[in-house]
Amino acid sequence: MIGLRRGMNDRLRRTGVVIAVLAIVLLFGPGSVRSASAGNSDATRYLVVLNGDYALDGSYALGQGYALCGAYALGNTYALDAAYALAGSYALCPGGQGYALGDNYALARDYALSLVSKAGGQVTDDLSKQIGVMIVESANALFADTMRSYALVDEVGQDASWKAFDSTEEALASGARFMSQAAAQRQAGGSGPKASSDPLESLQWSMKLIRAPQAHAQKQAGWRAVDVGILDSGIDGHHVDFTDSGIPGSLSNVDCSRGHNSVSFLPSGPGVGNPDPCVDNQFHGTHVAGIVAAQANGVGTVGVAPNVTLVPVKVCDSSGNCYASSVVDGITYAGDQKLDVINMSFFVDDDTFQQSTRLKCDDDATQRAFKKSVERAIKYARGQGVTPVAALGNEQDDLSGDKSCDEIPAETPGVIGVVALGPDSGKASYSNWGNGVVDVSAPGGAGTTGDCRNTVLSTAPGNAYVCIQGTSMASPHATGLAALIESQFGKLGPDGDVKLSPDTVESYLERTAVDIGLSGYDKCFGNGRIDALRAVNGDKSTLYDASAPSC
After folding, report:
1. Among 244, 304, 238, 317, which residue's Cα sits nearest to residue 275?
2. Among residues 124, 158, 192, which one ends one of the domains?
């Protein structure tokens, strides 16, 4: 996971992914970048969180229990009777009681839209049916204050960019180098494993640490019906390591047809880059995707679950910026599509004027709006059968302290939070941790010299490869294993969706983990180091690895 915060005199300060200094050949330069215009470039985006109880059946109760008649003098404050002819169509005050908006979704939504319009806003993304959130653009500087004055509105947050990870140019300036398959083998000082294996498997210490090759050989390499959403900067859907045969242009396990762009691309930002989800806006999403599901095709590397389907959900742009509205839309889309697992190697950050805060705190209205929106989106997605996995972050923080401030989405209820390990199973020094926060630990890398033997090798755009490290790399190892668990124990429903509840997936992931550190659950490693072989065999017996370093 990569996180960057902006300060008054510090434009970009890296707090996230640690880029390994990896030499060799820049196989293909970054692709051409373009911006697609959408909306009013002078407008500001807002997340409007509406009141009401959360109904997963789609009848989100906007303002349930909120009486139009009663506290509100409709005739004086809002001319709703005239605007909507409610008096003729609805008994607003049956028996002297207030009419609850939640009893009729269409009426509730119509009323919410009227409030947005009155405040000078235009809804650009209506998620009210799924999660009771509307994403709105407005040029009215008083829009947020006006909307907060309505009883139907719970929270309003001005949308903001947060620096999720380095752009390609910034990464290259920091010493990262994309390399060809042959160059990676030369980096290892050998010719690689036997010819029948993918040539770079010998460098994949992370897969060996979690026994992924044994799981593939003995029982499970994934099921194509299982789909994994990569919420990131996009995926290079044409990378040869995602093809079935290892031949450019052959069938890929990246489903571009169901890919989704959650970023609003405007001329002056937000959203610098290509909106196509199967074009990586830089390199991060492709690297994460390769860890999950690079295919065993005789080329390059092999992912944790090489046979599953990848669905790119673009929530970040080419400059490394992501937006709260994009993340909420992306998670909600994953629920709409009933994806089986999603990976989120980022934190949701807000960016007020020349200042940014990483944690979302309940005492700040904007941060509260972001936090609630993500919580609702995650709850909706889980209700649709999605297992959410997230990186815990790279700030070396104990996150078990003040629970009024949370790392989002990793600390969002229902999300599996992942700590990063080095090759010796020790906690990576950069990785966040915390009692009740970390669920499992997985390989993320712990190197300082740019050696692939200590950082995580995976795919990069342009049929290239790169070794980097961070909790961004740990999370997709756990995501890939969740996909193997879905493949092994899930059942294909009549609708073509694989059925296995997120609670069951999480139970397998945690209870089959190898105990490291202190005996039992601990604040550094959670339930332990994930183990693919034990997971696909359903082996929940206790296994302790005394050779792993303590935290």
Report:
1. 317
2. 158
Judge whether 232 counts as a catalytic residue. Answer: yes
Which among 246, 206, 49, 257 has a CA at the least distance from the CA of 532? 206
What pLDDT digit, counting tens, does each position of 409-440 carry? 999 999 999 999 999 999 999 999 999 999 99
DSSP state of 175: T
377 in the same domain as 228? yes
Is 472 annotated in the active site?
A: yes
Domain shared by 141 and 221, yes or no: no
> Which member of 284, 325, 397, 406 is catalytic?
284
Which value, in Å, is the radius of gyration of the alpha carbons in the chain? 24
Contact between 279 and 232 under an 8 Å Cβ cutoff? The reply is no
Please give the Cα distance from 460 to 464 (Å, whole number).
5
Number of domains, the chain: 2
Query: Which whole-number Å values give the CA distances from 435 to 307, 338, 362, 448, 526, in the listed order?
Result: 34, 31, 20, 27, 8
* Residues 217, 139 share a domain: no
Residues 216 and 132 in one domain: no
Q: Which amino acid type is present at position 101? A: L
pLDDT tens for each residue of 15-61: 233 333 332 222 222 222 222 323 445 788 999 999 875 444 444 54
Residue 260 bears catalytic tag: no
Q: Are residues 151 and 286 in the same domain?
A: no
Find the domain containing 259 and state its range: 207-445+467-536
Q: How far apart are CA 342 and CA 231, in angstroms?
A: 7
Whether 265 and 383 map to the same domain: the answer is yes
Q: Name the nearest CA neighbour of 431 among 410, 413, 451, 458.
A: 410
Please check whether residue 209 is in contact with residue 421, taking contact to mean a CB–CB distance below 8 angstroms: yes
Q: Is residue 63 located within the same domain as residue 211?
A: no
Question: One of 154, 227, 232, 531 is an active-site residue; which one?
Answer: 232
Q: Among 119, 139, 158, give the residue marking a domain's end.
A: 158
In angstroms, the CA 34 to CA 330 distance is 21
Inter-residue contact 224 to 541 (CB < 8 Å):
no
Same domain, 254 and 343: yes
pLDDT digits (tens, 9 = 90+) for 69-103: 433 333 333 434 433 433 333 333 334 333 334 45
Cα–Cα distance, 253 to 230 (Å, whole number): 13
- The reported pTM is 0.85
CATH number at residue 269: 3.40.50.200
Distance CA 109, CA 90 (A): 15
Q: Which long-range contacts (CB under 8 A, 24 or more apart) does 370-373 make?
A: 370/47, 370/157, 370/324, 370/408, 371/406, 371/408, 371/412, 372/49, 372/154, 372/155, 373/47, 373/49, 373/131, 373/133, 373/157, 373/324, 373/328
Question: Of residues 356, 472, 475, 487, which has the active-site annotation?
Answer: 472
Q: Give the strand pairing for 44-50 and 133-138.
A: antiparallel
Give every CB contact of residue 35 below 8 A, 6+ residues apart in sequence.
265, 266, 267, 271, 272, 273
Handedness of CA 535, 536, 542, 546 (dihedral sign): negative
Tell me, yes or no, whether 292 lies in a domain.
Answer: yes
In a domain, 14, yes or no: no
Residues comprising the chain, all counted: 551
- The encoded tokens of residue 313 equal 């959900």
